[in-house]
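Weekly modeling sync, notes
Attendees: AB, CL, MP (scribe)

Item 1: holo prediction request
CL wants a bound-state model with magnesium ion before deciding which constructs to order. AB pointed out that an apo prediction alone won't tell us much about the pocket. Agreed to run with the ligand included and paste results into these notes for async review.

Input as submitted:
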Amino acid sequence: MLLPQRLLEVVAGVKGFLPENEAIALMAAAASAETGVWLEIGTYCGKSTVYLGYVASQHDSHLITIDHHQGSEENQPGWEWHDTELVNCETGRLDTLPALRRTLWLSGLETVVTPVVADTRSVATWFQTPLTFLFLDGNHTEDVAPHLVIGGTLAVHDIFEDPAKGGQPPWHVVQRALASGEFVQTAQCDSLRVLKRVARS
Ligand code: MG
């Protein structure tokens, strides 16, 4: 599955850290997931949200995307991935929500994607919806996918087995998931891994 040309033009103008080959692999993972409620954790400016939202729109699914929109550690001033264009001049804080709103508006995916502006830890206290697809992006350390149904797909981005190449939390998430016996790996593309839930305790 590929994005239509008009959405390729949108994502070309969205800031983010998702190479095209990984985006295509992510779309393939979503396209093979069951219809239902899908969740993305780590929205940033919504680049991967467009890829996933488009697939959701073709599969009668709905995508929730969670981010506090204040940037990860590596996006803060003085860090490698800081972008001064994303700083709110009044608060002095990074704020990627306006960029996400623009992305969703340009892509026409506002009815398919529901953004949740919050820290995932606070969302975890009330979130109850069973998920058929979960994409973890950014440096997340949460326990793996308590709401992912059996047969559900877990995609994790930014996996670097070598600490010299990148942060370890995503790799640890995948290691824990595989070690639990509840997940099997079904695909891999550069720093993206795709797992399927085969059991739950
Ligand atoms: Mg990423």
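Recorded for review: The two ends are 33 Å apart (CA to CA).
Action items: CL to compare against the apo run; MP to circulate these notes.
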